[in-house]
What we know:
The complex is a heterodimer.
Chain A: E1 2-12, E2 20-31, E3 35-40, H1 46-53, E4 61-66, E5 69-70, H2 76-87, E6 89-92, H3 105-115, H4 120-133, H5 138-141, H6 151-163, E7 169-173, H7 181-198, E8 201-205, H8 209-215, E9 218-223, E10 226-231, H9 233-237, H10 240-245, H11 252-262, H12 277-291
Parallel strand pairs in A: 3-8, 3-9, 6-7, 7-8
Antiparallel strand pairs in A: 1-2, 1-4, 4-5, 9-10
Helix pairs in contact in A: 3-4, 3-6, 4-6
Chain B: E1 4-13, E2 21-31, E3 36-40, H1 47-53, E4 62-67, E5 70-71, H2 78-84, E6 85-88, H3 101-111, H4 116-129, H5 145-158, E7 163-167, H6 175-192, E8 195-199, H7 203-206, E9 211-216, E10 219-224, H8 226-229, H9 233-238, H10 245-255, H11 267-275
Parallel strand pairs in B: 3-8, 3-9, 6-7, 7-8
Antiparallel strand pairs in B: 1-2, 1-4, 4-5, 9-10
Amino acid sequence: MAIELQDVSFTYLPGTPYERQALRGINLKIQEGSITALAGHTGSGKSTLLQHIGGLLHPDRGQVCIDGADLAAHTKQEKRAALAACRKVGLVFQYAEHQLFEESIYEDIAFGPRNFGLAETDVEARVREAMARVHLDYDAYRDRSPFQLSGGQMRRVALAGVLALHPAYLVLDEPTAGLDPRGRRELLQMIRELHAAEGTTIVFVSHNMEDVFAIADEVVVLRQGMILLQGAPADVFAQGEQIAAAGLRQPELMRLLSALRAAGVPLSAEETAVRTPAEAAQAIVCALKEKGGRTHAQ
Amino acid sequence: MALIEIEHLSHVYHAGEEGEQTALDDLSLSIERGEFVAVLGSNGSGKSTLAKHLNALLLPTSGACRIDGIDTREEADVWRIRQKVGMVFQNPDNQLIAAVVEDDVAFGPENLGVPSAEIRRRVDEALKAVNMTEFRSYAPHLLSGGQKQRIAIAGTLAMQTEAIVFDEATAMLDPEGRAEILSIVQRLHEEQGITVVYITHFMEEAAAADRILVLDHGRLVMDAPPREVFRHARELRALGLEVPLAVELRDRLRAAGVALPEDLLTPAELVAALSGKGGAASGD
Ligand SMILES: Nc1ncnc2c1ncn2[C@@H]1O[C@H](COP(=O)(O)OP(=O)(O)O)[C@@H](O)[C@H]1O
Ligand SMILES: Nc1ncnc2c1ncn2[C@@H]1O[C@H](COP(=O)(O)OP(=O)(O)O)[C@@H](O)[C@H]1O
Ligand SMILES: [Mg+2]
Ligand SMILES: [Mg+2]
């Protein structure tokens, strides 16, 4: 099953001086089990698209389907299906930690499951499990105020609150924005772990091409509310001119390897698209050997 | 006399109460006029607390902070201090107050009673310096995050402060917005000699500074030029920080036996060294 958008268009504040078309005829299928990144310049429509997937906004034209159910249903029958479909999607907003409100971390994470009508014992099990997923020790943290935590930890609490609902589709808006390097690394790691352990489908918005390159297996580049590019990150980012036209930059690693290649280090096009510094170093060492004479043991 | 002098500065939040928190712990350093200093440190290391001491938004619990010789605890001098040190914060939405861009930029000097012809001149210059002249009559809420940050910078320029402190001012921006802000800051530093204190989580930005301060648990643990600081990749990682990509590759390649200078810093230097074109950077 999958998330499917068919010819989705959306305009903010139609008929006012601030009218703004944010999405223009989007056709997109997000496969179950994938990690898909939505990339694009500020204002390209990423957050608007994400809110359509979360069922918070409904298209003016076209439809958004989760596992075949249209999120904008009209009949009573359809409404029940739409609600069930909506509940499969967990949406983590940008700067989600700003929306924490309960006195304790436990209460904050328990809010959603309780709202779903779960019994208190089940709620507790959900909270325990979600805290483990975001690497927060249950006993040490359950009674603490979320406001005593660092920004990165607070964001993890917000993420746990969504994970406690057991979403089949986890949708995140700029999950690493504003975090320090350690917070960023840890959060990406948690998303990866969740994907590996539960097979949760991940859709995330990012303007950080390093993050996209690190964890996505599919990337969708938006420009002015339309899809400009879509495919595997290595293939998409290799299209330097298009990436620039979208107001983005290639991942730094790719730029550096391309510069080396242009300067005569014999790297293949494929090698300039490796994703980690470890792989890059290995490719460079091989290329230098090939070129000969420039490496020597220390 | 250095522009910023910090002596044995400690800052304790909620001193003597429940939740007491030592945010700065016996910090001593000085920053000269015209320096470009980056500040690194993981979340909670005390960067923002330090920043807020530099224009008397916070006062030392013990020790001293002097700006151009003025002790920040001299209450009567708070406005003199704020005329010397401006601040640009992380969230662009919380910083602009007026309904029109040029009024926002004029706000500071108006408060100081600067004559209106002079204000107009300063606003023109400040908007020009951040490439925002064409937006002068816009409402700030119609601007992008990066544009709002440029207006916030223009506001401090119109105050003609000697120093500007940037507290993660690029954290909420996209890569293009971030690059624009950094290049404007570099230009103001070079052309107008403005002293810059630049707090960031982006190691590539810090590499552009003259000097890097690294904070950990409220203590100053490194204070050296980027080339020197980024020799210590292992220590930086242990503090929850990173090194720039070129430095990471440098270390991996050196470990694999490739001869490279141990203080190599930038992608351009790495390319030059590996392609054998021109002497790779030795330390400067
Ligand atoms: N609540 C809103 N009201 C009016 N216009 C909006 C609103 N949210 C977004 N927009 C506009 O819609 C377009 C797409 O915005 P958004 O989806 O937030 O982009 P992104 O997340 O890629 O930065 C932009 O032009 C933006 O100004
Ligand atoms: N208003 C405050 N009240 C209590 N503690 C605070 C306050 N502001 C910051 N702190 C604490 O002081 C320490 C340093 O915080 P801060 O200067 O904001 O660090 P950074 O900017 O490096 O993330 C942290 O432990 C933080 O929790
Ligand atoms: Mg957005
Ligand atoms: Mg801070």
